[in-house]
Amino acid sequence: MKKIVAFLLILTFSFSGCEKDDICDANTPTTPRLVITFYDINNPAVLKNVNNLKVIGDGMTEGIVFNSASDNSKYLTNGNTISIPLKTDANTTTYSFILNSGNLNPTLIDIDNVIFNYTRNDIFVSRACGFKTLFTFVPSLPLVHTAVPVTKQKWMQYISVEKSNIDNEDETHIKIFF
Amino acid sequence: MSLFMVQAQDTIPIKTSPERTKIVGEIPEAPKQVKAKTSTAIKNDTIIPVKKDRYGLRVGVDLYKLTRGLYDSNYKGIELVGDYRLTKKYFLAAELGSEDKTTEDDRLNTTTKGTYLKVGFDYNAYENWLDMENIISIGLRGGFSTFSQDLNSYKTYNAYPYWGEMPWKPSGESFSGLTASWIEVVTGIKVKVVNNIFVGFSLRLNVLIVDKKPSDNFENLYIPGFNRTYAGNFGAGLNYTVTYFIPLYKKTVKAKK
Q1: Fewest C-beta atoms under 10 Å: which of B99, B120, B140, B180?
Q2: Backbone angles phi, psi at B169, to 5 degrees
Q3: Where are the domains of chain A?
Q4: Taking every pair of C-alpha atoms in chain A, what is the biggest distance, in angstroms?
Q5: How far B157 CA lies from chain A's nearest CA (Å)?
Q6: What is the pLDDT of residue B28?
Q7: What pairs with residue B177 in β-bridges?
């Protein structure tokens, strides 16, 4: 009988810590970012690294952080793939893609604006993670691409929508050739 | 709660110790002399009282659910409990309840409403001394609930909040006609505090067998009777009961050989 009492006590204490202990696991696929891969326009099968690319959302003062540097170079990337978050409370997201950002010669800095048009769908994930937002590009006009200023030649020469459903970050959704 | 446990622990019947019997007598009720007189067999000048067990129906209410509504504005609930003594050790037991609970998770706000019924048995593992009627039991229940779940509002999870943390989105989606079935393992104690009035406490470990999900895109976060759902189909519960015993008949306890 003492065993039963001990069992009851253990049971009481083991259940007391059950609430509010669940945290959304970082490995759980939640709201995906838009995955953009850069290719060489002269050799479309070959990946091409960008040079000091800075990506700033419309209306934002700071760019997307690409690395863990402590100074402003954290906003710059020199790779061939970037992942950028889309707005989950609007059906369009506008980004400025600044090539050769921070270059001392202003004529070498190229800025292209891209407006992404999409529809959103909120999907239940779990109690801890809540919902995630999945995106689908608007088929008729998935994106609007302009140079800044508009008279200037665009540095992105061709933008290809590879996947119109943005469900995860495991695949490239957009290819940019330059 | 711990007081009862201590009492229960102290009432181990050691028949040779007079001190022990004194303690036993204090807690639930003094042995009834009347019963002893009417059913006393005299053998070789030794008085051996014939022990009789009372059989009947015990009905009551869960105070935990009843009082929770007073301090938790997100909760309204009631649970009626009852058991019927089948044999010396076995009791047929059931709980019938209704709950209305709003759950505020970090990213979900849901309201679950429904009723439930649990039916099963308790096995009294406690050896009562004289006419004590305390119970330390282990039991099983089959639980069934019909309920509805409303998604009031939610937040989307975004690991990269470049555009800022998104506010709660209202939903208003309602899912009705949901059902769930589960098995409960119950450990409990019931102590007679005054004549025919018992207070009890039980802890329950639940295993969900089947549940009808609200949709492919959602799941049951709370099930009346089963309580909060966890990954792995496990759940837990407790109740704190006050019950009244309605005696129906008595049965003579056969002496052990």
Answers
A1: B140
A2: -105, 130
A3: 38-177
A4: 88
A5: 5
A6: 54
A7: none
pLDDT of residue B58 exceeding 90: yes
Q: How does the average pLDDT of chain A come out, rounded? A: 87
Cβ-nearest to B107 among A11, A88, A130: A130
Q: Regarding predicted confidence, which is higher, B184 or B52?
A: B184
Looking at residue A135, its amino acid is F
Structure tokens at A82: 């970037």
A78 vs A30: CA distance, rounded Å: 26
Structure token pair of residue B104: 């505020």
| pLDDT score of B22 more than 60 | no
Q: Using 50, 70 and 90 to split pLDDT, how confident is the model at B84?
A: very high
Architecture per CATH, domain B2-13+56-252, reads as Beta Barrel (2.40)
pLDDT at B153 over 50: yes
Chain B hits for A61, CB-CB cut-off 8 Å, are none
Q: Any idea where the domains of chain B sit in the sequence?
A: 2-13+56-252
Instruction: Decide if B166 and A60 are in contact by the 8 Å CB cutoff.
Output: no
ipTM over 0.90: no
The answer to whether residue B221 scores a pLDDT higher than 60 is yes
Measured between alpha carbons, how far is B200 from A14 in angstroms, rounded to an integer? Answer: 20
pLDDT score for A12: 53
From chain A, pick out residues whose CB is under 8 angstroms from the CB of B187: 4, 7-8, 11
Q: Give the residue-averaged pLDDT of A111-124.
A: 94
pTM over 0.80: no
Q: Do residues B126 and A1 lie in contact, with contact meaning Cβ atoms separated by under 8 Å?
A: yes
| Closest Cβ–Cβ partner in A57, A124, A127 for B163 | A57
Does residue B12 come out as left (phi exceeding 0), alpha (psi in the -120 to 50 range) or beta? beta
State which residue of chain A sits closest to B103, comparing Cα positions: A127
C-alpha count within 13 angstroms, C-beta hemisphere, residue B140: 4
Comparing C-alpha atoms, which of B248, B244, B238 is closest to residue B198?
B244
